[in-house]
Design a protein that fits this description.
Blueprint: H1 3-11, H2 27-58, E1 62-63, E2 66-67, E3 78-80, H3 88-108, H4 111-131, H5 135-140, H6 159-165, H7 180-183, H8 187-198, H9 204-216, H10 218-230, H11 232-243, H12 248-251, H13 255-275, H14 281-296, H15 305-316, H16 322-339, H17 343-354, H18 364-379, H19 381-391, H20 394-400, H21 408-428, H22 436-439, H23 441-444, H24 459-476, E4 477-479
Antiparallel strand pairs: 1-2, 3-4
Helix pairs in contact: 2-18, 2-19, 3-4, 3-11, 3-24, 4-10, 4-11, 9-13, 10-11, 10-13, 13-14, 13-15, 14-16, 15-21, 20-21
Length: 481
Amino acid sequence: MSGAAWAGRVAVGGPAAGPVYGGPVTASAQKRACRRDLWAVAGAVALFVLAAVVGRVLNRTVYGAEGILRLEWPPLYAWWLPHVGPGTPAALAVAALVVVQGPTAARRLPWRVLVAAVWGAAMAWTWSLALVDGWGRGVAERLTTSLEYLQSVDRVRHLGAFLSDFTHHILVGSPDLWPAHVAGHPPGALLTFVGLDRIGLGGGAWAAAWCVTVGSSLTAAVMVTVRALCGEALARRAAPFVALAPAAVWIGVSADGYFAGVAAWAVALLALAATRRTRAPRLTALGAGLLLGWAWYLSYGLTVLVVLGAAVLLLARSARPLPYVGAGVLVWVVAFTWGGFWWPDGYTTLVERYYQGAAKVRPYGYFLWANLAAQVASVGLATVAGLRRAAGAVWPAVRGTRRAAPAGRGALAVLVAAGLGMVVLADVSGMSKAETERIWLPFAVWLLPACALLPARTHRWWLAAQAVLALLVNHLLLTGW
């Protein structure tokens, strides 16, 4: 094989590519790399087990009538409840289909068909896992509990009055206190469900369908982004892992899945605009800004998306989309501010409210590392192995941007590192004590493409590990939020 041909295969992450950009890999080196993958997985499992054991011990410290962690099954927000449900057969069938046929389909299907297939598989996976808990408990009643958004839909009668008065009902002790999830987010989150109600799609079932549909679409957005920045070969290799992510347990059915979908499409449009893989890059950049701005009015924490956005621009070696992205964001800033809601006031009030609740007693030192352990259940063991392989490629790729835009595996490593950076920022903020397997969905899903770096011959084994983990979590635990 010529040097040029070899370089081409490495750039797109072909089967002969080395861990970063290197030459041919010997069989013994491949075996060593696989052993290191297993050691990384063992370390992640040990971290999760340690978080569970230490969490049990800490929970013996009672504060009031509850354990200090306010968790029944640390580090996850869940209860031990082995069960099966109407979604069990479908979940097993979807898992088997993706494990057996996913890698082959990812190689052979036309690109647009593949993207649609990944979204469809992710939706089927998410719906089936949600239905393991039953239609009521798993779907229709998920967003109607006393803490959720649908409890407050009828309170929104006049938009201006709602926005100008929103912050006055956040703190404990305020009149007509918002439920926890409403108080913990900007008004855009509640307005989404108000909008659904006003067009005749009210109630828990429609809200659940919205969250699952938008949330599972993030799989397509991740695929589009990886293709634009890292090449189609790596996007295809990542496809089955993105479709069968254990994160689906928390996408269905939570509003955070919806938030993650919006955020993912903002990043995808930015990637298309920055790489000019679209006929209308300026309009695409404006769309990215509109989605990014809306995301910031769905969740305060999504401001850390600037880390991923910066990585996208770095990989594309282009700042041309920035004015149009800024204009799109500004639309929402002006609209909400004109309506009476000032985002900084909402956030500072939320911080005060956050420490009026469970965060007041939950120990920061424990959750600083237990939050990371919880991500093992969300992204899966294959992602842990993929992250190990990506680690060595990040710095060479970043350093190489002085000469040219990173390509292939190097670009993928930078993209994944940006996702990990968002997780770390959210972690050290102190505003995420527990429940991060759900709250960090918009960040954690960007770790999934790291699975593309795993050897193709092992993909079915790793996919099986992903599926088994998700099925065990969903059938042994009753997850909550």
